[in-house]
Amino acid sequence: MVVHLKPETETRLKELAATTGRAPDELVEDAMSGYLAELTQVRNMLDGRYDEIKSGRVQPVDGEEAFGRLREKNKARRRS
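RE: above sequence
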């Protein structure tokens, strides 16, 4: 597989490879492996949350309402 990187990214990759003594290919493999594992974890979490909402086990919260609550909590903390 061929991966095309921006010149700045490739420069940073080569610098890291020189610093760590690891091959650039190994660093890219590790980075992609970690990224894909994290992406899979997030996808599974979102799927589970969607299933909970769809089944009625949890009720969604209005976004504006949630942010309003957070703003009020922050204001209360600043006052105390």
